[in-house]
Design a protein that fits this description.
It contains eight helices and no strands. The protein is mainly α and 172 residues long.
């Protein structure tokens, strides 16, 4: 939605849509780092960067910059978030493999995935409804900024929750 709001071309929208797939190139270095660094530390750090990367978008309406600069900032934010997300997810999966006993992994990850998808769908619908309403009253930019800020705050909360998790599964 930011790309459309900033009058981005079809190429810009496609690039932003493809960044998640393009960032997968970071899987190999991420796996290497996960093997030689603390999985927990790497997961926490990379995930925090991925989530915090969107904070500049919350400030975008209040910065006087050219439309080209704003589009460049959008691409940079999305790229940083995508690459850090790949690194963080790789380390998180390895960390959870250490943390969740093998006998519980299927149920745990199945339930977690279901709840995460449900929360994501509800959030996307709520955000879409807010943006549709904002377009009618000419406040789209502020709603986009608010949604970016809300995403940043949600990232802080989830990172804090991750920090509270133990580093590894302790055998009895």
């Amino acid at each position: 939605n930011w790309a459309l709001h900033l009058g981005g071309s079809s190429l810009l929208v496609a690039l932003l849509g493809a960044l998640g797939s393009l960032a997968q190139i970071a899987q190999l270095p991420a796996a290497w780092f996960s093997a030689f660094r603390s999985r927990r530390t790497l997961a926490l750090g990379a995930t925090a960067v991925a989530r915090a990367a969107y904070l500049p978008l919350a400030l975008l309406p209040f910065v006087h910059a050219s439309i080209e600069t704003q589009r460049l900032a959008l691409v940079a934010v999305a790229a940083i978030s995508a690459i850090a997300g790949v690194v963080g997810n790789n380390a998180w999966v390895a960390w959870m493999g250490d943390l969740v006993p093998a006998s519980l992994r299927g149920r745990y990850f199945g339930r977690r995935t279901s709840l995460s998808l449900l929360a994501g769908a509800v959030g996307a619908i709520a955000g879409g409804l807010a943006l549709d309403r904002a377009r009618h009253v000419d406040t789209e930019e502020l709603v986009l900024a608010a949604l970016s800020g809300l995403g940043f705050l949600a990232g802080l909360v989830t990172t804090w929750l991750m920090v509270r998790q133990p580093p590894a599964f302790a055998a009895a």
